[in-house]
Design brief:
The complex is a heterodimer.
Chain A (H helix, E strand, L loop, with lengths): L5 E7 L2 E7 L5 H8 L18 E4 L2 E4 L12 E3 L1 H4 L10 H8 L9 H14 L5 H7 L11 H10 L5
Parallel strand pairs in A: 1-5
Antiparallel strand pairs in A: 1-2, 3-4, 3-5
Chain B lengths: L17 H7 L15 E7 L5 E7 L1 H5 L3 E5 L34 E2 L5 E7 L2 H9 L2 E6 L6 H5 L16 E9 L2 H7 L2 E9 L11 E6 L5 E5 L4 H12 L6 E5 L15 H13 L6 E4 L2 H7 L6 E9 L5 E13 L5 H11 L9 E9 L13 H19 L3 H8 L19 H12 L24 E13 L10 E8 L7 E6 L8 H13 L6 E5 L16 H21 L5 E7 L20 E13 L5 E11 L6 H20 L5 E2 L2 E2 L18 E7 L16 H4 L1 H13 L10 H8 L1
Parallel strand pairs in B: 1-12, 10-11, 14-15, 18-19, 22-25
Antiparallel strand pairs in B: 1-5, 2-4, 2-6, 3-5, 7-15, 8-13, 9-10, 9-12, 13-14, 16-21, 17-18, 17-20, 21-22, 23-24
The chains are: A alpha+beta, B alpha+beta.
The structure holds FE2/S2 (inorganic) cluster (FES) (2 copies).
């Protein structure tokens, strides 16, 4: 039942997916409903919360603000594919740090928060605490009070909090 | 059972959460992630009318919409009433001749009364179907607030309760001799406090899936705080026995009290049952958008507290009067219980020899008030703590010292004229907060700041101040509620000692990490490593009634039930049973409702005590407030998992920060006009206090598992009054209402 469907090919976590979507389909729905990657959460629908953050060519993007068709040709990384982008065979260091520093409670903000943090550190490797606070301004968490999130990110940045 | 004799190796440590691994790789399954491929999709239709009588409801066009499978309305509900503490709400509002209900089901009493559920092949089709529902209404006079509700000519919103007023629940306290109390007072502080609504804004909006399970039970997979209560309410409305209904919680994306009441659970269950009766066995999925969530569920109560406090010139309280009015909105939800907590909190953890307190819950045609972290405590504490801070200022006595002089001690008679449960540690937390915060040393100088980080920091207009507040909060359900928690443990193994255990528990892990704490307690109690204990949680088919994940009761109650089950399992093991099964139902000491006239009684079996010191900078040029440091001090009895305890403190502090400074739910003509996270502003990472210092005392509660007390609400409760005292210290202005938005601060500074 897809009206005016268009064919697109999305490259997600290193795999290519041929999809039939409506032109207005948002990237987050293509990821969740068409590809079945439900680790990317939806918390608002008004680009306010950051729960839906993914990496598009390594930069964090709120996937509820991008059309699926706009993501064609880019390499998309979701939380499910993050570990594979790092060297070790376990978790990505940012996942490991959130895990160890209790940077989560309910976990709903966590995939978006982790991906936003990965992109932030990648762009500004020399980040200090105020830089982390500024850089994660677009990602809301209602549970943790953010303190442990800051600690986790600083640890990955090589600056133990 | 002597819990303290058990060798604790897991308890008191901070192992990494078993569910955290799933959560960092995106594998945690929240209800919206667990939608079967063949599921139908449902949309809930709100009345969108604060107060109106429905005359006709025509669903024929909706049913004829392509893709729509069914539309359910009041006509389909066997028993059209529900509610957590009283059945005062129809499941669906519908025309007069439909449904069996003790409440008039043809009247919408708030904008999010539900009138239909549309089930379709896709969400889009369901939305088109919902738009095609045609209803005709007769608008009734709106009752926008409690002033209007209490006016003599106000329409009665719940005439079925037999009362002549919308003030439907009252509590009183008459203690000592109030006239003598006023006669002994050298000073009197009199104020009217207004406390605002607050939206929970859990990041995961309501969602769930319903189906008939293999045993024929109507099953709902969703999120919530108490599986057995949800099951009971579903069964009641559907005219089923409890055994015919099953509730399972998947991963829960926050709750904070906001998932204590029904949202989509009953109507989802209804849809699955009705569809199955017509041979349609596909599961039904429903998820709310953020806007539906904010419009569609209850809020922290707004209210007004008229307060009068009398004291000697030494700052000793001689008299206290208070009138607490909470806005229940269109339905009770848990308002009568929340009111009880506000009623007790308004006297604080202090010796009050003479008191007159009246508290009332009032129906209006606005969004219902209900459970939210602190459960009436923040409202009551705000009033008494502001009163005490004003008293301290008036008498030029140190605010911490004035609290010490009035604090309750072990053996003291509390405001309800009974001896407080043993383990009163109000003085200890005040002292610890004073010591840690350097309260007696001069305030550190202001650091310049600018609310807009990219602009240069302001200096000239910044003023600094600090404030103090203390409090107490009950643990567990009060006022005679039959408190209980059940646990079951199976011990396995072929050797002399078990090598593996299964733990079955109904308690809800809303994100706080409860299931890890449960396993830690079980592991120690049966003498196994944490990894050897497998948890089976939150499914009414496998676990007994745990009671709710609320009222700071879960660790306390569940912990005791697990200790009991471990002891039973151990006995069975020694008797040779394999697997050795232990079941236990923990029942704490009984509580009782308050005497209706005097308020005398024993309402609670345990309390937690806390104190907060706040340091703020106020930019008098822009009205912005920066919280420089919070010292949040708690007697938690025993930190079963210190990392989780700190997480609760830090999270509660930031929620209270939003409540105090930025969260500003707006209503206009009975409608919420801030239904998005872009207009309802919860704190982001840049808004939070610069430093949150969590101070944890472990002064055992004689009844708690390993001495643990409840603690998850306490850090919230003293935040607003401490910050508001600090703002007064900085600016000389007392704010009797909040949130302290820059515009409000600026206006008050003149
Ligand atoms: S769901 Fe995309 S920002 Fe909230
Ligand atoms: S952990 Fe719950 S929203 Fe961040």
């Amino acid at each position: 039942m897809v009206a005016n469907a268009v064919q697109i090919r999305l490259s997600v976590n290193g795999e290519s997916h041929d999809l039939e979507v409506e032109p207005r389909t948002l990237l987050v729905y293509a990821l969740r409903d068409d590809i079945g990657l439900t680790g990317t959460n939806i918390g608002c629908d008004s680009s306010s919360c950051g729960a839906c953050t993914v990496l598009v060519d390594g930069r964090s993007v709120k996937s509820c603000t991008m059309l699926a068709v706009q993501a064609e040709g880019a390499e998309i990384t979701t939380i499910e594919g993050l570990a594979a982008t790092s060297d070790g065979d376990g978790l990505h260091p940012m996942q490991q740090a959130f895990h160890e520093y209790h940077g989560l409670q309910c976990g709903y903000c966590t995939p978006g928060m982790i991906l936003a943090s990965v992109s932030l550190i990648d762009e500004y490797p020399d980040l200090d605490e105020s830089g982390v606070r500024e850089g994660l301004e677009g990602n809301l968490c209602r549970c943790t009070g953010y303190n442990n999130i800051v600690k986790a990110v600083l640890q990955v940045a090589g600056k133990e909090a | 059972m002597n819990a303290t004799n058990l060798a604790a190796t897991s308890v008191g440590s901070a192992p990494i959460r078993h569910d955290a691994a799933d959560k960092v790789i995106g594998a945690a399954r929240y209800p919206a992630d667990a939608v079967p491929a063949d599921a139908l999709h449902a949309v809930v239709v709100f009345s969108n009318r604060p107060h109106a009588r429905i005359l006709t409801l025509d669903t024929s066009a909706a049913r004829a919409t392509p893709g729509v499978v069914a539309v359910f309305t009041a006509a389909d509900v066997p028993v059209n009433e529900y509610g957590l503490t009283m059945f005062d709400q129809p499941v669906f509002v519908g025309p007069a001749d439909t449904g069996r209900s003790s409440v008039a089901a043809d009247i919408s009493r708030w904008e999010a009364d539900q009138i239909a559920m549309v089930v379709a092949e896709t969400t889009e089709a369901a939305r088109l179907g919902a738009a095609a529902i045609h209803s005709v209404w007769e608008d009734l006079p709106r009752v926008d607030d409690t002033d209007r509700a209490l006016a003599v000519d106000a329409p009665l919103l719940h005439p079925e309760n037999g009362l002549e007023t919308n003030a439907y629940h009252h509590l009183n306290i008459r203690k000592g001799d109030i006239d003598r109390g006023w006669a002994e007072a050298d000073v009197t502080i009199e104020s009217t406090y207004e406390v605002p609504h607050q939206e929970h804004a859990f990041l995961q909006p309501e969602a769930g899936t319903s189906y008939i399970d293999d045993d024929g039970r109507v099953t709902v997979e969703c999120t919530g705080q108490w599986i057995h209560e949800d099951r009971g309410q579903i069964a009641h409305a559907l005219g089923l026995s409890d055994d015919e209904v099953r509730v399972i919680y998947l991963a829960i994306g926050g709750a904070f009290g906001g998932k204590e009441d029904m949202s989509i659970q009953i109507v989802l269950a209804l849809a699955a049952k009705k569809l199955a009766e017509h041979g349609e066995h596909r599961p039904v999925h429903c998820r709310w958008s953020r806007e539906e969530s904010i419009v569609g569920h209850h809020k922290r109560h707004r209210g007004r507290i008229n307060a009068r406090l009398g004291a000697t010139s030494d700052g000793i309280i001689t008299a206290l009067e208070a009138e607490v009015t909470l806005d229940s909105g269109g339905y009770n939800y848990t308002s009568n219980k929340v009111l009880g907590n506000a009623h007790l909190s308004v006297a604080g953890p202090y010796r009050v020899p003479n008191a007159v307190i009246h508290s009332q819950a009032v129906y209006t045609t606005t969004v219902p008030g209900g459970a939210f972290r602190g459960f009436g405590g923040p409202q009551g504490a705000f009033a008494i703590e502001c009163q005490l801070n004003k008293l301290a200022a008036e008498l030029d006595i140190d605010p911490a010292e004035i609290r010490r002089r009035n604090a309750l001690h072990d053996g003291d008679i509390g405001i309800t004229q009974s001896v407080l449960p043993q383990g009163v540690t109000a003085t200890e937390v005040i002292d610890a907060c004073v010591a840690r915060s350097g309260w007696e040393a001069p305030l550190r100088p202001a650091a310049p700041f600018n609310p807009i980080a990219s602009l240069p920091a302001e200096t000239g207009a910044i003023r600094r101040g600090r404030g103090f507040a203390a409090g107490y909060k009950n643990v567990g359900f009060s006022f005679g509620f039959p408190e209980r928690s059940e646990a079951e443990i199976h011990l396995h193994g072929d050797g002399d000692t078990p090598d593996r255990a299964d733990l079955f528990h109904g308690g809800s892990d809303v994100g706080q990490g409860a299931h890890l704490a449960f396993r830690q307690i079980a592991a120690d109690a049966v003498g196994l490593a944490l990894e050897a204990v497998t948890g089976h949680f939150s499914d009414t088919a496998t676990s007994g009634d745990s009671g709710s994940a609320s009222a700071s009761r879960l660790t306390f109650m569940a912990g005791n039930s697990i200790l009991g089950a471990a002891e039973e399992a151990d006995k069975a093991w020694r008797d040779g049973q394999r697997p050795a099964v232990g079941r236990f139902r923990y029942v704490p000491p009984p509580t009782e409702p308050l005497n209706p006239e005097t308020g005398a009684g024993t309402p609670n079996f345990s309390y937690g005590y806390m104190a907060t010191e706040a340091e703020v900078s106020v930019d008098t040029g822009t009205g912005h407030i920066r919280v420089d440091r919070i010292v949040s001090t708690h007697d938690v009895g025993k930190a079963i998992n210190p990392a989780l305890v700190r997480g609760q403190i830090e999270g509660a502090v930031v929620q209270a920060h939003g409540y105090t400074l930025s969260e500003n739910l707006q209503l206009s003509e009975g409608h919420v006009t801030t239904p998005r996270l872009s207009s309802y502003l919860i704190p982001g990472i840049g808004d939070i206090p610069e430093v949150v210092d969590s101070v944890i005392l472990e002064l055992a509660d004689p009844l708690g598992p390993y001495g643990a007390r409840g603690m998850a609400e306490m850090p919230y409760i003293t935040y607003a009054p401490a910050v508001i005292a600090a703002v007064h210290d900085a600016t000389g202005v007392w704010f009797d209402s909040f949130p302290l938005t820059p515009a409000k601060v600026l206006a008050a500074l003149g």
